[in-house]
Amino acid sequence: MAATFTASLVPVACTKSVLKPAAKAQRAAFVSNGSIKKTTAMQVWTPLNNKFFETFSYLPPLSNDAIARQVDFIIANGWTASLEFSDPSTAYVSNENTVRMGDVSCLYYDNRYWTMWKLPMFGCTDPSQVLKEISACERAFPDAYVRLVAFDPIRQVQVAGFLVHRPSNSVEHQRPDKRSV
Questions:
Q1: Positions of E strands within 26-111
Q2: Cα–Cα 20 to 30 A to 59, which of 147, 158, 164, 167?
């Protein structure tokens, strides 16, 4: 069994440090990142057909009640809700559907703009209005992705965004119980 040595650094002459044994060295019985229950619950991520969008896309589809609570949060923060939709072929960033500016790619915010459904909902204070618009967008474009985004009028940036509708025929997504092995 290997000896255990715990050290602490002690400054010497303001520019050097010396290794000094600690008063009480403790030895770990085994390597662990938590309880046995935690380590056996770990799974391997499935990289095939397991794409995600922004916030909440790792969760099962949100219910209307869950979406309404998020809209309440958006309204409470003074943000403006807006709906966007996209065809599945252009919903994800890829080399085939993105116009790049030469070799620019690092931090380049490409293909993040989807088609806007109507105008942003300025002054909206009722989540049911947003739910009606989501439903109308889903009826008009049943095979498109629909996301709800929120804009901060002070900072003039998008501050939230999450998927509210995924096409029923989407194949690049796994159900939560199938995402890991």
A1: 80-86
A2: 158
C-alpha 79 chain-centroid distance: 19
Q: Give me 38's structure tokens.
A: 């935690």
| Helix, strand counts (H, E) of the chain | 4, 6
Distance between start and end Cα atoms, the chain:
35
Q: What is the pTM of this model?
A: 0.67
Q: Residue 135, SS3?
A: helix
Q: What is the pLDDT of residues 34-62, one digit of tens each?
A: 665 666 666 777 777 777 777 777 777 88
What DSSP state is assigned to residue 149?
E
User: Residue 26 — very low, low, confident or very high, per pLDDT cuts 50/70/90?
Assistant: low
pLDDT for 107:
47
